[in-house]
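Changelog note: in this version the structure field was regenerated for every chain. One regenerated record is shown below for reference.
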Amino acid sequence: MNLKSFVAVTASAGLLAAGLVGTAAPAFAKVTHKAKTSAVQVITTKLETGKQDGKKGWPKYVPGTFHAKAGQLVKLTIYSYDDGQAQTPAGYLAVKGTVNNVEWVDGKKVTKVTEANIAHTMTIMAGNQTINIPIPVRSAKEKFVTVTAEFKFAKAGTFNWQCYAACGTGKSGWMGPMMTMDWMKGVWHVS
């Protein structure tokens, strides 16, 4: 087996093990003795409600701190258990900064979530790059909503993320978890 065949077989096995069958395969560099492969970084988090974390009105991303590599494709999957709607500024309803500015909600391609149907966002400010992933409300028929988005960080650094749906405590919805690290805001460490 030559090196090119070995890389293709190894990559296929890795995709099967990572559960990426049926999704677009990552692009691999041309195989030479100096070539490096580009891997998909699979990252998952879940959105718990105040009922799950024991703090009424305090939804939480678990985990809320993330690590990624600049220039590599990130496949972020968010499992949201939240069935509550939150007021969200119009600029945060559309998917932005992901591959083709889309996300996948329970397997369906989505470019925007209506304000009446939004629970949270994962909005990452990475220098001049903004990545916005709106999270829809879970219906009564679902245990959770699955949101998947793919994106790359253009450069290394430590970047803040924030939920821009007013899902916290207080009259404005911007208190409590909205101001607390690893609840409705946090950090992406990109190396």
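Spot check on this record: The longest helix spans residues 3-18. Helices lie at 3-18, 50-53.
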